[in-house]
Each structure stands twice: as C-alpha cells, then as structure tokens.
C-alpha cells in the first residue's frame, strides 16, 4: 500500500544491488514464525494473534515478509505493459500486506513491550529494515515506471483522487532521492542507515533513564500527596521488591503529581532534577553525542536531496510549507505567553511570601505554587476534581461523545480476542445507524516497565476501499498510574484531557472513508487537529452529568465546581504555552540551519537565553529526552504542528459554539464529511476553507488562552 510506502519513504535508504543480493534470508531456526507471517484470522476481518507471538519470531518473520514484498514490487517494476496509474500506482497500493502485518505488531513490541530482548532485536533489525525498503523504493527501474506514469498523466483520464495520488507518489520518490545519481543514492543510503541506528540508540537510552525511580523511605516526605496517589507509589515499590517503601518512577505521570502536591520542597527538587535530566547525566545513557550525530547526518542528507536544510526537507509536504511560516505563528504567540508567565510567577512569589516561605520560585516550585494560586484565586483545588474523574467512566464519556457526534458505537469485548498485555481492553466499533462493523479499538492505559512514556495512538490496519473494503484496527496508549489493588484509578483533569485527545486520533481513523490508502495519511501539521478538537467535549455539561461522578458518592460533578474550572480555564496558560512553545521553537531553530549543532547543551541554553525563556521553568521536552525529534524523523522540525493544529482547533470549536449547541449535528456532519473522513484526498488547506468558509483565525486561539488579541 502506498500509505505505508509513503511513510517509509521518509526513512528508507538505497542499497547497491550487491548488498541487496546479500540481504539476510530466513535463518535456519527452529522458531516457527507462521503466526506472524500468516494472514490474520478470526472475527472483524481478522485480528492480530498476540496470544501466539513471541519476540523470537520476528528475526525469522522479517526475511520472509521482505522476500514476499520484494517479489510484489519487482513484479510492478518489471511489468512490460505501458506505465499508467492502473499498472503501477494501484498495484503498489496493494503491495506489502504481509510486511504491514509484521511491522504493525513489531511497532507494539518496541513501544509497549520493549524488554531487553526486544531492544536487542530492534538494534539489529532497524538498519536492516531501513536498507530493505530503500532497496525497493529507490530502485531506478521502479522510479522509471512511476515517472513514465506521471509524465503521461494528462492522457490517462484520471479522477481527481487518482491524479492527486499519482502526483504525490512521484513527488515523494523525488523527495527521497530518486532523481539522484547512483553514487548519490548510495550516499543517502549510508546516511539513512546510520540514522536508523542513532534513532534506536537514542530511544533506548531515554527509556533506560525513564525506568529508574526515586525511593522514599519516610511517609512524612509524601505529605500533601493524595491518598490514592500514595497508594499507587506503594504499589510501584512493591512491584520492585521494595516492601515498606514508596517508588516515584521517572515518568511524567508519576512526577507531575509530586511537583504539584508534595509539600516537601527537597523531594520536589530531587524528583524534578531526575526527570529533566533524563538523557543528560554524562553516563552511558547520555544522549547528547547521539543527537549531534543525528543532526550532522540529517543536514548531509538534506543537502544531498537538494534542500537547504532538514527543516525545509521535512516541511516540503506540510500545511505551513516553510520554516518561516511556522516561526511566524510561534513568534506571534511567544511574547504574550512569556508576559503571562511573568504575571504567574509574581502571583506565586507573593503567595509564598504571604505563607512565610522565604524562597525564590524555582522550576520545582512552579506547579506547587501554581496550584496554591489556583485555589486562592478560584477556590479550585485539583484534588477536588480528581475524585470525579474515574478512568473507566472517562473512557465511557469519550465513547458517548463519539456516538452522539459521529454515530460510532463502542461495545466492550475484552477477553474475546487476543491482546498483547493483560490490562489491554478491546471494543468492537460499529456504525450506530447501520450496524456495520467499523473495526476494533484497543486501549492500553497503564504505565509499566518497557513501555515508552507519554501517550500516543496507533493503527494496526487502516480503512481502504481498493481491493475490498477493510475495517480499522486502532489503539490508544497512555501511561496512567494504576490505582492500588481494589481501588478505582482516578486521573487528573490533564490526564482526562489527554485521554480525549488520543481518542480523537482514534475517531479520525474510524471515520476514514477513502479508496486509496496513499491518500489516508495527512500532513504532520494537520495530524493533531482532529485530536485537539475532540478535547473540547470533555467539560460539556452533558458529559459531566453522565460520567464525571464521584467515585464514592456517585454524584455528578457539581456545577459550582465546573464553574470554577471554567473560570480558571485561562489560568496557568503562560506556563502551559511557554513549556510547549519553547520546545517547538528550539526544534525549529535546531533544524533550520545549514551548520549542524555540535554542542547540544550550549545550543539549548543559548537559544532559550535569546528567546527570554523564564528562569522559573524548563522546556516540556529538553533536547536530551526529546523523543519526538530524535527517535525518528516523525516530529523533527514539526513540533510546531501542535500549535498550528490548535489554531484550527480553536477556530473549529468557535464554529460549534456559534450554533448555540456544541453538539450541533449539522456542524458535526460537515466536520466529519469535509475534514475527518477524507484523509488527504484534497489539499487540507482547501478542505478547511470548505468547512469554515475561510482560513483559520488565530484570534480564537488567543481568546482561549486568555492572551490579549494581537
């Protein structure tokens, strides 16, 4: 399928034919990899056989899947018929089915189940897989067929989607280096292989630092923390054989509550330092040298491919188009955000003095005193909110909103199909109007050893009409801290927002309605848009009345508390905006340059200094742990996309609000039909204009964040 081919073109490399011939074949092993290579069976058009798969199968399955895909692509390359959309592009869309199945399952192992064995396999196979894809897709003979089809496009009587797919396929091959000489392609090959190794190295070093923890021996140090959270820290300690102690694992879900509630300032500082120094401790897991290597390789590759730098290469197929356009939006927001931080710090400093604390606000104090200011200004304490946010209920709330807006019905079938970890839940997704099966939703909510931090959405199988209608297998992956045995899992408002955000990605997948998978993937700066829009329904009264119920009394969240939340909605927006935006600006500055950075620490420090970064806080993702940028190319020179998407999101929510009913079905239908279901069948800027009648207005974003409109 060109969807996966297109994605792979962003990372794959060309290999000389001699090396290709020497690619490893299936080893003589006793491991039977059939569960990986066979077509998925069972209900819902087949599901991944997690119960039959082990990590040891992948080194056996990879060469088998590679051989099959090589045969399919070579058949297209060597076809003697005239090169057309029908003889080249369409069969490419259907190629690689076995490789897609194996790859989707391997992605779960490397992200959700990254044991030492999995990491070792990943180190060995990342460059081999990268090499394999370039062998296929930077083959001059294959590109000659694509170019011939492209050159004759005017005479082929193609419909708009076919023409767009043909043109985008040609452009993606050019962007990868298909117009280069053999020697240049071999250079790109070498660079990309080195990058695949470096990405793997970076990811595993960060994961190693995230699998550390701080042990607390004295319960007095935990003063201020909610009882339910203290119980989860005890469970984490018990799991690690630390009876009678508490363990604060070095991930955001464990760290954030400590920084927000712990009255022990020394503990806050210790936890904060451990967290922000991931990848930056001068030890075996230090990532700075790896980052410098990645930056050097990226710039060499961009130059070979005819781009000024890596940022221009990555932004060649985005809504923003150029680094300058992305920077213009970011720098329009930055001054207002920094000014708001100054106000927030002044409020916190005044409150600290009033409480008799003779301190200067430091980064490990920000969340703690912000929470105190929130309570003083709005009489709102986060601990008041959490008892109403029981994880299972918020999951049901997300389902309810999707049903009401888009007619999607989610029915739990956990235990009826295989899962990759015992706590994963599954749900059958149907069209509530017709009863048609849309797919299956997998939900992996809890943090654990071997699972990368953060939250993300994945898709094991995407919808397409070509070759027969397929349903969708999609997942959400979170890192919530599980409640103690026998206790419900309560999550923060931020966690609930994250759940709705990631579920927005799933909705986007389930609503997809395209013929060609190559027109399913959207530009990076559009990807976060549907998920950010979905966050807006979390705090609607309808959702709260049904699902935000106190875990002990069963009473819905009172309107007085909701009013406090809404009145405080612009509170701490300086912190939230600067924390994110500093990361996005540093990302763009790092990649929009022709001389690669060699001293990563100095660059981060000096860039933030020029920006006027407030000393009381740090970037949301410091460079040494910035997985978005350095575990792959995915968000490199693209972290700005969250702000780009949020600009559209705020403007879209304003359209719902303007109807007087945020559940307005006509607006939801138009949103679905114009933007959510159409993949990339039309230019996304044009699609947005069709939905809104104009380009997005940044005014809505400023109003949402409580910044003066500029």
UniProtKB/TrEMBL annotation:
InterPro entries, alphabetized: M3A_DCP (IPR034005), MetalloPept_cat_dom_sf (IPR024079), Neurolysin/TOP_dom2 (IPR024077), Pept_M3A_M3B (IPR045090), Pept_M3A_M3B_dom (IPR001567)
Positions of the Peptidase M3A/M3B catalytic domain: 258-705
Co-factor note (free text): Binds 1 zinc ion.
Necessary cofactors: Zn(2+)
Homology family: Belongs to the peptidase M3 family.
Entries under PANTHER family matching the protein: DIPEPTIDYL CARBOXYPEPTIDASE (PTHR43660)
Protein name: Peptidase M3
């Amino acid at each position: 399928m060109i969807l996966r081919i297109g994605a792979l073109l962003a990372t794959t490399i060309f290999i000389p034919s001699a090396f290709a011939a020497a690619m490893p074949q299936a080893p003589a092993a006793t491991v039977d990899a059939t569960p990986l290579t066979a077509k998925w069976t069972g209900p819902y058009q087949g599901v991944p056989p997690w119960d039959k798969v082990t990590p040891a199968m992948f080194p056996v399955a990879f060469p088998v899947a590679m051989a099959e895909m090589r045969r399919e692509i070579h058949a297209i390359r060597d076809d003697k018929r005239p090169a057309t959309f029908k003889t080249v592009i369409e069969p490419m869309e259907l190629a690689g089915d076995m490789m897609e199945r194996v790859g989707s399952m391997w992605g779960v192992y490397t992200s959700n189940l990254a044991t030492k064995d999995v990491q070792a396999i990943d180190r060995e196979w990342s460059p081999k897989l990268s090499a394999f894809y370039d062998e296929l897709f930077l083959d001059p003979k294959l590109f000659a067929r694509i170019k011939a089809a492209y050159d004759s496009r005017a005479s082929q009587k193609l419909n708009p989607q076919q023409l767009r797919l043909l043109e985008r396929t040609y452009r993606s091959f050019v962007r990868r280096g298909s117009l280069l000489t053999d020697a240049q392609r071999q250079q790109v090959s070498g660079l990309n292989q080195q990058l695949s190794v470096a990405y793997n190295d970076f990811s595993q070093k960060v994961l190693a630092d995230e699998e550390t923890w701080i042990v607390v021996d004295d319960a007095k140090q935990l003063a201020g923390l909610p009882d339910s959270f203290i119980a989860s820290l005890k469970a984490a300690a018990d799991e690690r054989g630390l009876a009678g102690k508490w363990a604060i694992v070095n991930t955001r879900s464990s760290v954030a509550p400590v920084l927000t509630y712990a009255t022990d300032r020394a503990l806050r500082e210790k936890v904060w330092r451990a967290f922000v120094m991931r990848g930056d401790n001068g030890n075996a897991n230090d990532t700075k040298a790896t980052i410098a290597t990645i930056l050097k390789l990226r710039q060499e590759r961009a130059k070979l491919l005819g781009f000024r730098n890596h940022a221009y290469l990555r932004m060649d197929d985005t809504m923003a188009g150029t680094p300058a356009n992305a920077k213009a939006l970011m720098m329009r927001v930055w001054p207002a955000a920094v000014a708001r931080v100054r106000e927030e710090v002044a409020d916190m400093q005044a409150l600290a003095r009033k409480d008799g604390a003779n301190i200067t606000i430091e980064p490990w104090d920000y969340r703690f005193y912000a929470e105190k200011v929130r309570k003083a200004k709005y009489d709102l304490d986060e601990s008041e909110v959490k008892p109403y946010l029981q994880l299972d209920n918020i999951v049901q709330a997300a389902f309810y909103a999707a049903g009401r807006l888009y007619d999607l019905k989610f029915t739990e079938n956990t235990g009826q199909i295989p899962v990759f970890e015992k706590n994963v839940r599954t749900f059958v997704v149907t069209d509530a109007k017709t009863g048609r099966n849309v797919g299956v939703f997998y939900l992996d909510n809890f943090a654990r050893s071997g699972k990368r931090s953060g939250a993300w959405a994945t898709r094991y199988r995407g919808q397409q009409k070509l070759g027969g209608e397929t349903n969708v297998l999609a997942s959400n992956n979170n890192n919530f801290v599980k409640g103690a045995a026998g206790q419900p899992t309560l999550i923060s408002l931020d966690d609930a927002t994250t759940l709705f955000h990631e579920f927005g990605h799933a909705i986007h997948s389930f609503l997809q309605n395209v013929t060609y998978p190559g027109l399913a993937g959207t530009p990076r700066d559009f990807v976060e848009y549907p998920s950010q829009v979905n966050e807006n329904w979390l705090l609607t009264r309808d959702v709260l009345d049904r699902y935000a119920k106190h875990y002990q009394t069963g009473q819905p969240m009172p309107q007085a508390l909701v009013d406090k939340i809404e009145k405080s909605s612009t509170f701490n927006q300086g912190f939230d905006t600067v924390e994110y935006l500093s990361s996005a600006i540093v990302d763009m500055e790092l990649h929009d340059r022709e001389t690669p950075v060699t001293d990563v620490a100095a660059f981060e420090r000096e860039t933030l200094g020029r920006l006027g970064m407030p000393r009381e806080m740090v970037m949301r993702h410091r460079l040494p742990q910035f997985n978005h940028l350095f575990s792959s190319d995915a968000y490199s020179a693209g972290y700005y996309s969250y702000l780009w998407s949020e600009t559209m999101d705020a403007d879209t929510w304003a359209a719902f609000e303007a109807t007087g009913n945020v559940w307005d079905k006509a607006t939801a239908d138009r949103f679905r039909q114009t933007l959510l279901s159409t993949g990339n069948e039309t230019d996304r800027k044009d699609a947005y204009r069709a939905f809104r009648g104009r380009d997005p207005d940044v005014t809505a974003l400023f109003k949402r964040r409580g910044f003066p409109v500029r």
